[in-house]
Design a protein that fits this description.
- The complex is a heterodimer.
- Chain A is mainly alpha-helical.
- Chain A has 22 helices and no strands.
- Chain A has one domain.
- Chain A is globular.
- Chain B folds into two domains: 287 residues, no CATH class; 224 residues, no CATH class.
- Chain B has 22 helices and no strands.
- Chain B is globular and about 70 Å long.
- Classes of the chains: A mainly alpha, B mainly alpha.
- At the A-B interface, helix 1, helix 4 and helix 19 of A face helix 1 and helix 18 of B.
- Chain B: Belongs to the ALG6/ALG8 glucosyltransferase family.
- Chain B: It holds the Pfam family Alg6_Alg8.
- Chain B: Its EC number is 2.4.1.-.
- Chain B: GO terms for molecular function: dolichyl pyrophosphate Glc1Man9GlcNAc2 alpha-1,3-glucosyltransferase activity.
């Protein structure tokens, strides 16, 4: 590639931003007794290093599960173990059993931040660069600009490098991205392997699993279930089973072990939602306290039904007409429905939606940028708690400027470029006056941005009234939730009308 | 196209500002204080200087407000008193009026080592805000670049490259936004005055430069270039056909108006102190000759090479028993702790020697400017040479002074391939020599990443710009520049784990400054040669 140096510069910019953000404070800094996610990650290193594998997920005198017990799949635990070995080499105090609880120092912070950077550098960033290079039909310049925007996406940077989530998002998302890359380049086996690794690193990657499943199944159908398709299906099944078995090997020895890990991974008893999340249940909670009215198993069934119904159409569509673009769009809509409707959602899970949105950035720049801005905004209460206001504002502005200049998004708001052409044509058959769609979307964007800015300003400057101490964070969640609902509808419309337009174009040509 | 240019610049500006913001956040993040964990002997003064001269000295300066103007530069409350010319004091005075809205405590004269997150925020934002002037100056400079080689793409245009080279300048970024100084707007003034000279608005240029001199007197280094250029090309209105001077074209009006401008600015600045009879005090603060020849960390100039040679000779002498170990001053062996570096073998250097050396080094370039004037470009080359020569031979030069040569040189680099290659050697080594300014572990990745960013961009963009001409570097230069990588690895990653760390703590800094001194001397020499053998303007026109 003749522009290799520009790509290098883009990667370097991404790294610089990441490292500068990492110099800020992290979650739970100096807040005993529980500290925060940072301490959780350190604690896991302590547990995995000092205890035998069999005790990792069990409550014992050495492993108090109430204090940041391990609740992620085995791959996370192995990663912690690896980090622990390095930590042991540098300073054994960092991972000493019991005595190291709540350990904080500049050097240790540096170490933890470096582990994130290295994981990012090895998994996520190469995936992004390769993905952008593999894009078709766009110029080298656009590819590089695309890489810049994806790497500058503030949500991921702020959560991984500022907040310091106890799980390295860049690793799980990076594996998922490798999966997308593999599947869309027709290296199906590699893709599914990478995606299995992602699931085994973070169970929330299951949000993405249905589109993967449907897309691969659709591919098999396309090749004919009696011939090549069947072979592919068997191969894929073998890959998935083998990679799962490999990851879970130490826990398959006893039945109780496996069950305990699963119980830790899916904590059904933790309730419909925790804290403030920008999903339906939390927003609905403002009007009606569902958690207290309905029994838990009904909540579970209800959330399952809603999730299932909302993602069903897109998945069926993908299975019947598998295409690379449809696959990415379905990833978005599935992850978004999971985020909005499913049980026990974290506010940070929005990153799982943002990743596929980043992948469609070059195709629908206007809407993607808008969505990514909203997703960052929905994290505001969390970031404020960690004193990350300044980095959030600066990185968001940098990201916005990068998007505006590299895609000139404001000039791409016609129906054609919003991929809404076929939809509006079919609506116009019944409603001939339906011509204001693109203008409406522009106004909506303006309103949404203005509310976000105003709410941010209010949260930062005003004190909430005494009676409603959470007023602003609830408002933030509510506004983001409305936005997300709109996006869910939008992406589903695109998916549903997408292939029709494709067919129409074919007919025309 | 102009619109594009403007836009890209504004964006770059914002980004550089946001970069500053990040530096700012970073400070508050790492809890910056004098907790130097690894201040070895060689480093210590450097560290103190960095910490105090950085934020504290400025806090101190903001305190000017509390003191009546007659005591502005006079007190001895602390060791970090104002040692800048009066305009800077006024600037700090204005800042202090804004500062009181942030944090009252900051302005207390007795509060010497005061620091709080709000103070930090205020200080950092003031730097970013003042950079607006720098951005404007860069915009003006870009207008002066002749756009003959207009490429198809925006990123390949000389103007775009120049604006990135100036706005993203690694040295300026770390010195201003991480280390903390107000260089941005001062360089803004300098670039603005250069731009005005390019636009033939000589009076404005002279005015800006006079103002600049009264902000920071380090710019006296380049004053000869200004003086001679204005005299030769502005006061003499015509040349003979062969390019030599026509004496009868001398314009008295122009000289007097120039003099008036400079005089008025100086009167405004120094007048109040003259009236209060404090001028000697001001000057004694401005020109402290009590400090040593070199900083604790030797700036990579001629004297660094001289010191290193002295050291090598003394070691050889001891080995071969030419020297008596008892006669050697102890300090010279531990190095760094003592500001006064005593030479053992070679003769010691006095301020007068450095002054004479500097003058001798500057003279040829001045003659060149006088006898074969080449318009503003010749002036710019002379200015760069003045700055570089003073850097090479000056007394107690700080490594940051290299920026004085690097920034004007950026303007030259996008116009001619030969200048571009000199510029690249100069910037890369000069910037690398700034590395010891940032020495804590969290800053290590930042400085390496930013340096890589700037270096890769400058080299590759200038290579694409001049791809039709011969390659920018010969094998020797390539080898030298690539050598910086292993040097950094040795100094920062390998050396701390070796046993030499205790025995010779100063070794990495010594290696850095000597290695960089070689490159900078080479660049200086090459630039001088190219200026001297360049054909005068008359001949170029014939060609």
């Amino acid at each position: 590639m003749e522009k290799w140096y520009l790509m290098t510069i883009v990667v370097l910019i991404g790294l610089t931003v990441r490292w500068t953000v990492s110099l800020n404070s992290y979650s739970g800094a100096g807040k005993p007794p529980m500290f925060g996610d940072y301490e959780a990650q350190r604690h896991w290193q302590e547990i995995t290093f000092n205890l035998p594998v069999k005790q990792w997920y069990f409550n014992s005198s050495d492993n108090n599960l109430q204090y940041w017990g391990l609740d992620y799949p085995p791959l996370t635990a192995y990663h912690s173990l690896l980090c622990a070995y390095v930590a042991k080499f540098i300073n054994p105090d960092w991972i000493a059993l019991h005595t190291s609880r709540g350990y904080e120092s500049q050097a240790h912070k540096l170490f933890m931040r470096t582990t994130v950077l290295i994981a990012d550098l090895l998994i996520y960033i190469p995936a992004v660069v390769l993905y952008c290079c593999s894009l078709k039909d766009i110029s080298t310049k656009k590819k590089i600009a695309n890489a810049l925007c994806i790497l500058l996406y503030p949500g991921l940077i702020l959560i991984d490098y500022g907040h310091f989530q106890n799980i390295y998002n860049s690793v799980s998302l990076g594996f998922a991205l490798w999966g997308v890359l593999g599947v869309s380049c027709d290296w199906d086996l590699l893709g599914s392997l990478a995606f299995c690794l992602a699931i085994n690193y973070k169970q929330m990657e299951l949000y993405h699993s249905l589109p993967f499943f449907c897309f691969l199944l659709g591919k098999c159908f396309k090749k004919g279930l009696k011939g090549k398709g069947f072979v592919l299906l068997v191969k894929l099944a073998c890959t998935v089973v083998a990679s799962f078995v490999l990851c879970w090997l130490p826990f398959f020895t006893e039945r109780e072990q496996t069950l305990q890990v699963l119980r830790r991974l899916f904590p059904v008893d933790r309730g419909l939602f925790e804290d403030k999340v920008a999903n339906i249940w939390c927003s609905f909670n403002v009007f009606l306290k569902i958690r207290d009215i309905l029994p838990r198993h009904i909540q579970l069934i209800m959330s399952f039904c809603f999730t299932f119904l909302s993602l069903l159409p897109a998945c069926i569509k993908l299975t019947l007409q598998p295409s690379s673009k449809g696959f990415r769009l379905t990833l978005v809509s599935c992850a978004l429905s999971f985020f909005l409707f499913s049980f026990q959602v974290h506010e940070k899970s929005i990153l799982l939606v943002s990743l596929p949105v980043c992948l469609v950035l070059s195709e629908i720049p206007f809407m993607s940028t808008w969505f990514l801005l909203v997703s960052t905004f929905s994290l505001l209460p969390l970031l404020l708690k960690d004193e990350l206001l300044m980095p959030s504002v600066v990185t968001t502005m940098a990201f916005f400027i990068a998007c505006v200049t590299s895609f000139s998004i404001f000039e791409k708001t016609s129906e054609e470029e919003l991929q809404l052409k076929s939809f509006s044509i079919s609506v116009r058959k019944y409603l001939p006056c339906f011509t204001f769609l693109s203008r409406m979307i522009q106004y909506l964007f303006l309103i949404s941005v203005i509310t976000m800015v105003l709410l941010t300003l209010m949260t930062v400057t005003l004190d909430p009234p005494q009676k409603l101490p959470d007023l602003f964070s609830v408002l933030v969640c509510f506004v983001s939730c409305l936005n997300f609902l709109f996006f869910l509808v939008y992406f589903n419309i695109i998916i549903m009308w997408d292939s029709k337009s494709g067919r129409n174009q074919k007919k025309i040509s | 196209m102009a619109l594009w240019q403007e836009r890209s610049q504004s964006i770059l500006g914002t980004q550089s500002a946001s970069c500053g913001c990040r530096a700012l956040k970073k400070r508050s993040g790492t809890g910056w204080g004098a907790q130097g964990t690894d201040n070895t002997g060689f480093r210590r003064p450097q560290l103190d200087c960095c910490v105090k001269n950085g934020c504290r000295a400025k806090t101190e300066s903001v305190e000017t407000k509390k003191q009546p103007s007659n005591g502005g530069v006079y007190t001895a409350t602390s060791e970090w008193t104002l040692d800048y010319p009066p305009f800077f004091a006024w600037f700090e005075y204005i800042l202090s009026h804004v500062a009181k809205y942030f944090d009252q405590e900051m302005l207390n004269v007795r509060n010497l080592n005061y620091s709080s997150s709000r103070t930090l925020l205020f200080q950092r934002f003031s730097v970013i805000f003042m950079d607006v002037l720098f951005v404007y100056a860069v915009h003006e400079c870009c207008k002066c670049i002749d756009g003959k080689k207009v490429g198809k793409e925006l990123t390949e245009k000389p103007k775009f490259i120049l604006s990135v080279l100036l706005l993203w300048n690694f040295g300026l970024l770390i010195v201003d936004h991480i280390h903390f100084q107000y260089n941005g707007f001062l360089f803004g003034l300098m670039l603005l005055s250069i731009a005005r000279l390019f636009q033939k608005r000589h009076m404005e240029g002279a005015f800006f430069f006079a103002v600049l001199l009264h902000f920071k007197h380090i710019y006296l280094y380049v004053a000869p270039a200004y003086g001679v250029y204005l005299l030769r090309s502005y006061c003499f209105t015509a040349n003979k056909p062969d390019g030599s001077i026509r004496w009868n074209s001398f314009s008295f009006v122009r000289v007097i108006s120039l003099g008036l401008v400079v005089f008025l600015v100086s009167a405004l600045s120094l007048g109040p102190f003259l009236a209060l009879n404090q001028l000697p005090q001001v000057f004694s603060r401005l020109f402290p000759f009590k400090r040593g020849l070199c900083h604790a960390y030797w700036a990579p100039n001629f004297w660094a090479l001289y010191n290193a040679l002295d050291k090598v000779l003394s070691v050889i002498g001891l080995k071969l028993k030419f020297l008596d170990p008892n006669n050697i001053p102890k300090a010279s062996m531990t190095s760094g702790l003592v500001q006064q570096f005593q030479h053992t073998v070679l003769p010691s250097v006095t301020p007068l020697t450095t002054l004479i050396c500097t003058l001798i080094a500057i003279l040829p370039s001045i003659f060149c400017l006088w006898f074969k004037p080449q318009g503003p470009r010749g002036f710019l080359r002379c200015l760069t040479l003045c700055a570089l020569s003073s850097f090479m031979f000056g007394w107690h030069v700080h490594e940051k002074a290299i920026l004085l040569a690097i920034l004007p040189m950026s303007l030259l680099s996008v116009q001619k391939a030969g200048d571009a290659s000199i510029f690249l050697i100069l910037t890369t080594t000069g910037h690398y020599s700034l590395f010891p300014l940032l020495f804590t572990a969290p800053e290590l990745p930042i400085k390496i990443l930013l340096m890589l960013l700037f270096t890769i961009y400058s080299i590759s963009s200038l290579k694409t710009l001049f791809r039709k001409e011969k390659p920018l570097f010969n094998w020797m230069e390539t080898f030298y520049l690539l050598g910086l990588g292993p040097l950094e690895v040795c100094c920062e990653f390998v050396f701390p784990f070796t046993s030499w760390k205790v025995k010779y703590p100063f070794l990495p800094l010594l290696l850095t400054s000597v290695y960089c001194a070689v490159g900078i001397t080479y660049a200086w020499f090459k630039l001088y040669v190219s200026v001297l053998i360049d054909p005068p303007v008359g001949k170029t026109k014939k060609q």
